[in-house]
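Pipeline run #58 for the internal structure catalog. This entry was flagged by the ingest filter as a single-chain record with no existing model, so it goes straight to prediction. Upstream metadata was stripped on purpose; only the residue string is passed forward. Reviewer on rotation: M.T. Logging verbosity set to normal.
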Amino acid sequence: MDKMTRLFLVRHGETEWNRSLRYQGHRDIPLSEEGRAQAEKIASRLSAEQFDSVYASDLSRALETARIIAAGHGLEVKAVPELKETNFGRWEGLTYPEIDKQFHEVMQGWRTNPRDTRIPDGESLGEVADRCWVGLNRVIDENPDRNVLVVAHGGIIRIAVATVLGMDINDYWKIKQDNVSLNVIEFYSENRAILCLLNDTCHTS
């Protein structure tokens, strides 16, 4: 039987920039009070799960969410820099209308072909996907036949789900990822993966 690693992928809790719809990217914006409350809710949801390891992006909004969940399991959180959100460069701190006004042509490219469109002073989605899989593959390789919690960002989780489903990552925006949503993917040894749960937020209601 194939060895299987089950990844529980969680998006971080809400930040003030999430609430105001500002692009965060690599800006290290902390959780809001609401974000911490959301993290406590998913921690309660996952309290009965048996995790062998916990990983997170090295940005504080992901690390803090992961630590709140991991506390109930007695586990330390391992930071994975490759799981940072997209580097939005000069777009960070701006809203969509502000970006579209100042960088209209690039935004048009990002909407239709983000894989190959590099954001000013930032990344293309293809570059993000490459580093994302470096990090995720390392986590999977370190945890054969284990249950692993990974707390990351909407863009990173969309890339993982789109890739597993064989989608063109240019369409990754079609995958919804709410704050503290839960996703479960089972990774097998023969380059097979199964999406078991997507954007589950029942714990927030």
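catalog note: Residues 4-204 form a domain with the Rossmann fold fold (CATH 3.40.50.1240).
catalog note: The beta strands are 4-11, 53-56, 77-79, 147-152, 182-188, 192-200.
status: ready for reviewer M.T.
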